[in-house]
Write a structure and sequence with these properties.
The complex is a heterodimer of chains A (370) and B (153). With 370 residues, chain A is an alpha+beta fold. Chain A is built from 14 helices and 6 strands. In chain A, strands 3-4-5-6 form a 4-stranded antiparallel β-sheet. In chain A, helix 2 packs across helix 4, helix 3 crosses helix 4 and helix 9 packs across helix 10. In chain B, a hairpin with a 5-residue loop joins strand 2 and strand 3. In chain B, helix 3 crosses helix 4. Classes of the chains: A alpha+beta (370), B alpha+beta (153).
Chain lengths: 370, 153
């Protein structure tokens, strides 16, 4: 028999209006506008776009405002919104070689075509809090430098000339890219599906796993071959036009991790690679993704699987923070009936235990109860 | 003839690319300034949906799905019969409408010049200026390495 217990409607409604009030906060402080979030909390917006798996700055900003700055809640809101929209198709693969580059650094080559462009980075800042920012002073325009458009080949292409690095990841000719939004996860999975899961995976989780590989759990000797951030144009094939229709540009971060590899029964000594590609300016995430991608290729490269970061089912099943938060947070919802059943069970087991371990005391207890 | 057709397609695509990258506000402003006509029959949309972005493993390898993006599209027919399409990232329905009308007008040989000079050229020039500024700002952060010689020999 199942008995539904009802109640709490008024409490829930009042809790939500209290939430709306607390979200707005002190009314004498001006309300945040979405364009302020887009412009001034841009990297938080990028994280919500990347893990929400939806490129739309204004929607991500709305989600951040609605979630009171709780980014995982904001990601959840964005994921839910996605399910309400029809799908128009798959774009042509983006060409990161033709990026309008805003940052590009390599830790493996000092002098590479196109050079090292630091861009708007936190690197080399002293991580000292800035009281001038608190005072809200004017900010100077950035400097400009005359330059001619210069080709910026990917570092992997430079290393490839020596034949000491594996090629870009290929799949069989007739392989259609898998889509985890259409088909349930199945293990073992192909690298393309893994990359889709990693690109929307939780930054903190992937960062910790990437860090674990550096500390010796599946050590794989990484170097940042290249990180590049910038805008790429999207194109979509549609039946009504004789050419791929241009959709505009998106900003992405790409990380090419290069890993020394001493060879195995399956592959000769060479540099192997891990790849990261993430929406927005999300450098830490792209690096973590590339470290995890490389670690997860252990079986393909004939390495022993000894650590968590190499365990595909472990990593991919736990990388999605919307799934993770859903399952962890459901624990706080009413479990009154389940718990009542467990309580009865534990009482019975304890009575049996007491009867076995201390028959006299158990008898006294039983008599007292009667 | 084939060559002319290919050139026309490339120019039309370039115009659509400019419209997709420009902001709705800029399009509306230039549209009014140029006095372009906006009466057209709506055949589809404007409607917002998703496209799935694809990247390539390692940058140049096999394609994989990265994530989705919002896209808004529209299709219109002019009183003179031309059918125009628009697709652009984001959820701006007015922009989608005007861009579709612009595409239809562009296909009318009698109006192409008007659309190009009144709308596409100024939009493209603003986009190029913004890109050049961004490129120059990035270039100012380029590292110029130099070597320091220490000691006598």
């Amino acid at each position: 028999m199942y008995v539904a217990v009802k109640g709490g409607e008024a409490a829930i409604a009042n809790a939500h209006s209290l939430l709306a009030d607390r979200r707005r906060g002190d009314r004498s402080v001006p309300a945040l506008r979405l364009d302020q979030i887009v412009e001034q909390l841009a990297l938080g917006v990028d994280r919500v776009m990347s893990e929400g798996s939806l490129y739309d700055r204004e929607l991500a900003a709305l989600a951040i405002a609605q979630a009171r700055g709780d980014l995982i809640e904001a990601i959840f809101l964005v994921r839910a919104y996605r399910t309400t929209l029809p799908r128009f198709g798959y774009t042509k693969p983006i060409d990161t070689d033709n990026m309008l580059v805003e940052r590009r650094v390599s830790a493996t080559y000092k002098d590479l075509p196109g050079g090292q462009l630091l861009g708007p980075t936190f690197d080399y800042t002293h991580r000292l809090l800035d009281p001038e920012l608190a005072a809200g002073g004017d900010v100077a325009e950035p400097l400009q430098r005359e330059t001619e458009a210069q080709a910026m080949p990917r570092v992997s292409a430079i290393l490839a000339r020596e034949g000491l690095i594996e090629p870009d990841g290929e799949m069989p000719q007739d392989h259609i890219p898998g889509d985890i939004t259409r088909e349930p996860l199945e293990f073992p999975m192909a690298r393309d599906i893994r990359l889709q899961a990693l690109s929307r995976g939780d930054e903190g989780f992937l960062l910790a796993l990437g860090y674990s590989t550096q500390r010796g759990y599946a050590r794989n000797h990484p170097f940042v071959g290249e990180i590049r951030i910038g805008e790429v144009e999207l194109e979509l094939d549609v039946p009504e036009l004789p050419f791929a229709v241009p959709l505009g540009t998106v900003r992405v971060t790409e990380c090419q991790m290069v890993n020394q590899f001493k060879g195995s029964a399956k592959a000769p000594p060479q540099f192997t690679r891990g790849y990261g590609l993430v929406f927005g300016q999300s450098e830490r995430k792209a690096m973590a993704m590339a470290l995890c991608d490389r670690a997860l290729r252990a079986t393909e490269l004939g390495e022993d699987v000894t650590a968590a970061a190499q365990d595909e089912e472990f990593v991919i099943s736990h990388s999605d923070n919307v799934q993770a938060t859903g399952f962890v947070e459901h624990l706080k919802l009413p479990h009154y009936v389940d718990f009542q059943a467990e309580l009865d069970l534990v009482r019975r087991m304890r009575a049996e235990y007491d009867a076995r371990e201390n028959p006299v005391k158990a008898e006294e207890k039983r008599e007292a109860a009667e | 003839m084939r060559g002319q057709e290919a050139r026309d397609q490339a120019e039309r695509k370039a115009a659509m690319s400019t419209l997709a990258q420009s902001s709705g506000d800029d399009i509306v402003r230039l549209w009014n300034e140029a006095g372009l006509p906006s009466d057209a029959e709506l055949l589809r949309g404007p409607e917002t949906g998703l496209v799935t972005l694809r990247g390539r493993i390692g940058g140049g390898g096999a394609p994989f799905n990265v994530g989705e993006a919002t896209v808004t599209r529209a299709t219109v027919r002019l009183p003179s019969g031309q059918v125009g399409h628009s697709y652009a990232l984001g959820r701006d329905k007015q922009k989608a409408m005007l861009a579709a009308i612009a595409d239809a007008l562009w296909q009318d040989p009698g109006r192409r010049a008007e659309v190009e000079t009144g709308l596409i050229v100024p939009l493209r020039s603003a986009l190029t200026t913004a890109q050049e500024k961004r490129r120059a700002e990035t270039a100012a952060t380029k590292v110029d390495f130099f070597t320091m010689v220490r000691g006598e020999d």
